Amino acid sequence: MFRLEPRPAPSRVLTLASPLIALAVTVLVGIVLFTLLGKDPVAGLRMFFVEPLRNSYAWSELTIKATPLILIALGLAVCFRANLWNIGAEGQFIMGAIFAGGVALRASPESPAVYVVAVLLAGVVGGMFWAAIVAALRDRFHASEILVSLMLVYVAEMVLSYLVYGPWKDPQGYNFPQTITFLEAARVPRLMQGLRANVGIFVALAAVAVFTVFLFRTYQGFQMQVGGVAPLAARYAGFSSRRALWTALLLSGGMAGLAGALDVAGPQGQLTPYVPVGYGFAAIIVAFVGRLHPVGIVFSAVLMSMFYIGGELAQSRLGLPKALTGVFQGLLLFALLACDTFIHQRLRWVAAK
Amino acid sequence: MTYRLELRGITKQYPGVRANDAVSLRVRPGEIHAVLGENGAGKSTLMKIIYGTVKPDAGEVLFNGQPVRVRSPQEARALGISMVFQHFSLFDTLTAAENVWLGLDKGPSLDEVIRRIREVSGEYGLEVDPDRPVHSLTVGERQRVEIVRALMTGPQLLILDEPTSVLTPQAVDKLFVTLRQLAEQGCAILYISHKLDEIRALCHHCTVLRGGRVTGEVTPAEESNASLSRLMIGSEPPELQRATPVLGELALSVKALSVPRNDPFGVDLKALSFALHGGEIVGIAGVSGNGQQALMAVLSGEDPRAPAGSVHLFGRDVSRADPGVRRALGLHSVPEERLGRGAVPTMSLAQNTLLTRTDAVGPGGWLRTVGMHGMAAELIARFKVKAGGPDALARSLSGGNLQKFIMGREIDAEPRVLLVSQPTWGVDVGAAAQIRGELLKLRDAGCAVLVVSEELDELFEVCDRLMVMSQGRLSPSVAVADATVDQIGAWMSGLWTGQGGAHVPA
Q1: Which CATH superfamily is domain B240-330+415-506 in?
Q2: Has the ipTM of the complex gone over 0.90?
Q3: pLDDT tier at B254, thresholds 50, 70, 90
Q4: Tens-digit pLDDT profile for residues B110-134
Q5: CATH code assigned to B5-233
Q6: Nearest CA in chain A to B16
Q7: Contact B72/B65 with Cβ under 8 angstroms?
Q8: Which residues of B touch A353 (CB under 8 A)?
């Protein structure tokens, strides 16, 4: 039988290169997949790795997808480093969108241009509120944050449906489940006429800088990471695990909420039942592929966005199912985990007894 | 006459260190053979090679004159080699018999196993009740379960790794009787230890290892502690300089401290009272697992469940204060587990200074990298820590070097009260002497020091007063000058007059 044995000294180079190897594996499996589907693998790969970068329109769409992924993954990276498994960022994203939408709906034609700041802040509050429920239940009753955060995703979806099918429905919307399109003052300013890209990408990049500093240059960030990798050492040092719990969950909830606000006040422009598209779950992969490092997250978010866009293009141009996006995202995470396993361990054949 | 076990030129290279360098060793049937060496001398690697968990790079293993290749512990047991590890591998929730049963490769019925346990334990005077769950056994009893398990297969070679570190002096004597009886029946015994007295009392032959090489093969009865120590470390450890203690103010006072256990296999602390003054070192002796760790956690603040008013630090009630508050008042501690508690394994030494030292934390929680590196570099130099530098990960250090680093980090903070668990556990003789010297220096500077240790020799060497902990209770304190090993040994079994731990001033 085969047995996994830990390697005495895992290679440093390989540890860093692991995401790239995983990407290569993903591409190889992709080629096999396209061939089996009877499509030209070169054309297929083009859809995923070339087309999403081809022109300014493509780049603009890329930032639209990458912005929420970066923001959510930053918050999740803090959580995961603190050994807190918030997997319900999707729910916090939705709640952020709802809170932001609620404020956006109250805008009037006279509202100043800075009104959008209130919209975004409302999104942050919404996400934090949703994550605070998780933190409170974990703090008070030791409830598993994994289950609670995940289940709250479905609650958030129900709340959103209730609002857009009910009280917030656009009276002139032919009974479609949607709110009115937000007024200009409540929308995130676009970067250029004719493209959907907006200032959200700069918010995300600024957040990357802030999180890098927080994680690696502040005492608070250090304390949280100690709590994650060595809880006993944190207790010995006197670092509060409750404080780490609340900080990590509020931070990640706030970031997911901000992402939700940027999405509804940006490209979407209104609340519909189709606000949740899985950014909150995809961001888990982004965080890990980015090695839980803010800068790494930027690269992995771009990659994941390419998969999103590539999947849509493969559907419209090659007639392939859009589900390919999920297949590629899953493959990438799977390949990364496999790479990490083999970098830290080696497989040995042991004669059966 | 053929040797029971013969090793020829065993060599094992690990990245950065040659653990065994052409080691040869011969054990006759019926011989108790000591393997003596400091921590890191290569004893454990050698035993793992014999027991099949590590493959040598070069060299031969002969068992009863036949060359063998031992690839796994199962194969070792099949050959007739048994091993009793320093750290027990027993399941707390199962009975002794069930644990033994689990360890057997081929399965007789549980009833059969219980019958065999009774036989073996009767034959060797190892009292073991097969039906008792392991968590209710004392450490000494657990070790007996391990030994019985090892003897069940009728081994021809028994390996014991530091077997006495968890035993009272009286229990050590009983163990020796058993081992001698085994040897008389022809079983060869490999006895790994760094305790010179024991080796001289028990063993027929002794192979000394230093830095992975054999530095001597001697008959221990003909050697002195000094000559063995020279073979082991290359020199004799320096004598400690002790000045008479100058008692300072009352530093730590504990009154009627009772804390219930917080895990099912823990120990309740029962009405402990004692006082610790500046300028003295007080030792707490006792077999491990009698509540020492629970007491240290309560005193350091890691366990904040002490009843209000039971722990005072310089007159202030700190029973419920967290470790940070106590540290601000001058109380520092060194925990028993270094990796994972005293230091974060995956972080650098520079980062690990931040656990208890905030010198490099600027306003607003900003970290000054230069400050962290500077402190780590200073500690490495001052306490002669063998490390790649301030950026070396804590887990890349050997246990002894990490202990020097952690001790250094706390000593360098100039504490007014220092709590230390097992200050020299796993540390080589030279470094141990250095650490003990530093503890005495702290005491002379007016610090109050509380030391928990399983090594009686060490406690007698550094302490001014001794107390003994047994089953969550604390004995009265006795001045080291008035204490004897026999008395402390008896106290370790909980036998002192006036149970309940009334404080008797030194």
Answers
A1: P-loop containing nucleotide triphosphate hydrolases (3.40.50.300)
A2: no
A3: very high
A4: 888 899 889 888 888 788 888 888 8
A5: 3.40.50.300
A6: A9
A7: no
A8: 74
